Amino acid sequence: MNNISIKNSQEIEKMRISGKLTAEVLEMIEHYLSPGITTSDIDNICYNYIINKQKAIPACLGYNGFPKSICTSVNNVVCHGIPNTSQILKKGDIINIDISIIKNGYHGDSSKMFYIGDISPVANKLCYTTQQSLYTAIKLIKPGIRLFKLGKKIQEYVEKRKFSVVREYCGHGIGKLFHEPPQILHYLGNDNGLTLKTGMTFTIEPMINAGNKEVVCEKDGWTIKTKDQSLSAQYEHTILVTENGCEILTYQHKEKIQPVLINE
Fold first, then answer.
1. Would 53 be classed as within a structural domain?
2. How deeply is 171 buried, as exposed, middle or buried, from its count of CB atoms within 10 A (0-12, 13-18, 19+)?
3. Residue 150 near residue 184, CB atoms below 8 Å
4. Distance (Å, whole) CA 151 – CA 134
5. For the CA atoms of the chain, what is the radius of gyration?
6. Is 30 annotated as a binding-site member?
7. Is residue 148 part of a domain?
8. Is residue 43 part of an annotated ligand binding site?
């Protein structure tokens, strides 16, 4: 636990601000999403909002060489989709928009699925299941809970509904750094003995496939797709462990869960 950052009250306030701004970007961009918009358009709108309106920094831009301010992952793209001018959204598409910002030296990180017009029943069930799997894990969080139980809960929920959990990517601690210890698995891994403590901040971000769990990386070195070309969905929140539960720092208005939870 020595290398896991426990945030003090001043740091928590900064994390709340970063989380709120991250959520605001996701709420803002929804109004622009309709058939005909390109993922490059979406990136430009978010960049301008973060820089000019929020006076914040898009954390993805230049991170390990990533070329854009946000990630836009459409249909069978699992994560890290690169916005581009040739990718035009059409009716029936599902898209994950992943926003990470830096404000006052601290990070916020969140993503959600958006529907472009009416979507298929499979896509609808997949997105709903993915969001609910995130919620089921959040409802477990409190000091003293073993970390591995979060991934166990997500995997059980998802596989019961005949979907699969991507193994290659995970949630992570977050604060001054974009990615800090610990890693947050979304499936049942080994119990490494880690327990949650008040003041920990981390993301939970399950990536769920309609088909098999296997993924492939495109030649650009970033875009991850389902190997079987099935649909994929992801929801992500930045979470603070409180004295008796947790707080969703990237809470958005349409959430079907409370922003602060007391978990018995």
1. yes
2. buried
3. yes
4. 10
5. 17
6. no
7. yes
8. no
Secondary structure of residue 52 in the 3-state scheme: helix
The CATH number of whichever domain residue 68 belongs to comes to: 3.90.230.10
| Residue 117 φ/ψ region, left for φ over 0, alpha for ψ in the -120 to 50 degree band, beta for the rest | left
In a domain, 202, yes or no: yes
Q: How many domains does the chain divide into?
A: 1
In a domain, residue 3? The reply is no
Contacts by residues 219-228 (CB-CB < 8 Å, ≥ 24 positions apart) = 220/82, 222/66, 222/80, 222/81, 222/82, 223/73, 223/77, 223/80, 223/81, 223/82, 224/73, 224/77, 224/78, 224/79, 224/80, 224/168, 224/169, 225/76, 225/77, 225/78, 226/76, 226/78
Burial class (CB in 10 A: 0-12, 13-18, 19+), 92: middle
172 is in an annotated binding site: yes
Strand partners, 74: 95
User: pLDDT tens digit string along 131-158?
Assistant: 999 999 999 999 999 999 999 999 999 9
Chain centroid, CA 239 distance in Å = 11
Residues 6 or more apart whose Cβ sits within 8 Å of residue 20: 108, 249, 250
State how beta strands 94-103 and 164-165 pair.
unpaired
Does the predicted model carry a pTM greater than 0.85?
yes
Does 109 carry a binding-site annotation? yes
Condensed to tens digits (0 to 9), the pLDDT of residues 1-44 reads 458 999 999 999 999 999 999 999 999 999 999 999 999 999 99
Q: Are 177 and 186 in contact (CB under 8 A)?
A: no
205 annotated ligand binder: yes
Domain hosting residue 37, numbered range: 9-262
For residue 262, the surrounding DSSP H or E stretch is strand 260-262
